[in-house]
From TrEMBL:
Regions crossing the membrane: 7-30, 42-64, 139-161, 173-201
Topological category with respect to the lipid bilayer: Multi-pass membrane protein
Pfam families for this protein: DHHC
Subcellular location: Endomembrane system
KW Transmembrane (keyword) present: yes
Enzyme class: transferase
Domain of life: Eukaryota
UniProt domain Palmitoyltransferase DHHC: residue ranges: 87-211
Protein name: S-acyltransferase
Domain remarks: The DHHC domain is required for palmitoyltransferase activity.
Transmembrane listed as a keyword: yes
Record's catalysed reaction(s): L-cysteinyl-[protein] + hexadecanoyl-CoA = S-hexadecanoyl-L-cysteinyl-[protein] + CoA
Keywords: Acyltransferase, Membrane, Transferase, Transmembrane, Transmembrane helix
Amino acid sequence: MKLKRFLSIPILGVFLLLGFVYYITIFIFIEDWIGLQNSSGSLNALIFTFLTAFSIFSFSVCVLTDPGQVPSSYAPDVEQSGISDEETKRKICDRCATYKPPRAHHCRVCRRCILRMDHHCLWVNNCVGYWNYKAFFMLIFYATIGSIYSTIIVITCAFQKDWDFNGHIPLKVFYVTCGVMMSALSLTLGTLFGWHIYLIIHNMTTIEYYEGIRSAWMAKKSGQNYRHPFDLNAYKNITLVLGPNMLKWWCPTAVSHLKDGLTFPVIRDNS
Ligand SMILES: [Zn+2]
Ligand SMILES: [Zn+2]
């Protein structure tokens, strides 16, 4: 049962954090800043509720979607052209004892090979691979925007408050703690989001980024230039992950553009 994937301590932690941030942002800070009984306060609460709902939706899709299993019938197409030495088409996973398609990797936690594996994510209790990478990316997109939104509200609320009254020390500590916590969360999520924008623009997975450093070093030693074989062009790379229709980019389940995850266009194919 896939729902069992939710039964993990990090996932529980994510939900607790989400619930806490949602509660303090709406019922403490927006309420204190402009109040919830007027159109401006309600609008801010509504926007933040949407961001939280989309974060939870993307998170759930990421947890529940199988990242990509290598079909038992898979065998590399010997005639297939355009696969570099790095992505050797006859690669065999010594743990699964089966052929491993290009960009697939063996995950020690999942104990199987995952198509276009990015990394195994403790926070979603799942591998991030071919079928759930878009959901993962949309999760960090909504979570980053939501976190920055909350940080701005907390800081704005703290600055407009009249702190002259000496009897509110615990409240001051609470405001400062929330401000620091939300700033740190925004910085962490923002860095992760920026990192994955970089990876998407270059059509790389986290694993391929680190492999690329080694390949570039090897190529340099032999006087050659290394280029990531799947890096077509920035726009094409983005559409390969998010889809060709920009109107569907926001939706983590809009993945009809994905094919089988066994073959990928490479630079030589891209005329
Ligand atoms: Zn394997
Ligand atoms: Zn895994």
